[in-house]
Fold:
Amino acid sequence: MSDVLPARFLTPVDLAELLGVPVETVYQWRRKRTGPRGFRVGRHLRYDPQDVRAWIEQQMTVGIA
Structure:
C-alpha cells in the first residue's frame, strides 16, 4: 500500500481516483463522517496519506467481521 499512496497530502480528486469512486462520494463521506479524516488548508480540503491508509485498513477489517 505504501507504494500506491503519494508522499504528499491528497485532494478529494486524488482520493476519488485512488479509490475508484466519484468525487461526490468523497464529499458524502466527509459530510457523514464515514470516510478518512480530512483537514482544511484555508478553503481547500486535504487528506493525509497515513490517515487514508489507516481508514482503508479499518474498512478491510470491518468487511471481515
Observations:
- The CA atoms of residues 37 and 51 lie 6 Å apart.
- The mean pLDDT is 91.
